[in-house]
Structures are given as C-alpha cells and as structure tokens.
Design a protein that fits this description.
Helix content is 26%, strand content 0%. With 168 residues, the protein is mainly alpha-helical. It is extended, with a radius of gyration of 22 Å.
C-alpha cells in the first residue's frame, strides 16, 4: 500500500510494492514464466491515513467493500468523492476494481512492533491480520469535589474511560 501510519518508517507500505515490482522484473530478466499470472497491486488508503476507514482499495479488489461506506469525509470536511474528483476519479471506480479469485496473496511488510527484534529474528511470517475498527465514544461524567466526594460516589468520566480501556 502506498500510504503509511505516522512514524511507521519511510518504507512501511511502499516496500511491499517495490519488492513486488522487483520480483516480477527479476523473473522477466531470467526469462522465467509462471503457469499463472502475477499482478502487483499498489493499494491506497489501506491505513486509513486521511479518511476514517481502512483497507478501502483492497476491500474493493476483494469484492467486500460496501458502497455505503464510501460516504466519508476527512478532518477538513472534504468528502472522498470530492478528493477523488480532483484527480479525475470517482467512488464508482471502487465497484469496477473487483477481481476474480486469487491463487495466493503476498504482502511484504516492515514490522511495526518489536517482536522480531526481541526474538532476534530477521524475518517472520504472518498468516492473518486483525481488521481495523474505529469508534468515536463519548463518556459523560458528573463533576464532584475530589476532597469531599468519595470515589464510590463519584461519576468521573476519566475513571470510567480507564475502566473501559482496561477491559479491552
């Protein structure tokens, strides 16, 4: 994918695209032909870096993208439709991105956590990913004087939020 999360490293997403192109180029240079097609995809907005959604283009290619989820706006209020229109594109293009069944899918990725380093491993294999879900939650409390209102009688929003996070 072309996008990245903040502070994930300069090659977070683009590495997989560059490696895909290089692998196909190496096969071509050696005049090796596979018995199946190889396609290199450069997905966009996989990390949800601008619009509050994730994996838009890969879901479109897989045929699992619900068109109703494309009614999105960024932090500045610009709609996905308007942002695409600036580049001569439309959200209707997502529907035409669907592709047939793939023999296999491979994404080379830079690890964003410390597991490989902690295990002194140079390479790891991931067999699945966790889907991203985003929620906006408002926790409402009630003001109470810290010196005279005991914790049992308080309705503190921060304490409630901390309790919810610790259960996640």
């Amino acid at each position: 994918h072309l996008d990245s999360v903040r502070d994930a490293g300069r090659y977070d997403g683009p590495l997989g695209i560059m490696l895909g192109v290089e692998c196909v180029a190496a096969l071509h240079a050696e005049e090796r032909r596979m018995s199946f097609p190889i396609e290199v995809y450069a997905f966009g907005d996989e990390e949800g870096s601008r619009f509050p959604a994730a994996m838009l283009t890969s879901r479109a290619v897989a045929g699992t993208l619900d068109p109703a989820t494309l009614d999105l706006r960024d932090a500045a209020g610009i709609s996905l439709e308007d942002a695409l229109a600036l580049n001569g594109l439309s959200v209707s293009g997502f529907a035409s991105a669907r592709h047939g069944a793939a023999l296999a899918y491979l994404e080379a990725h830079i690890e964003q956590g410390p597991v490989l380093e902690a295990e002194a491993l140079g390479v790891g294999t991931v067999t699945g990913i966790a889907a991203q879900l985003r929620y906006a939650i408002t926790v409402t409390g009630r003001a109470g004087h810290a010196g005279t209102t005991s914790m049992a009688l308080r309705r503190d929003a921060l304490s409630a939020a901390a309790a919810m996070i610790s259960k996640a």
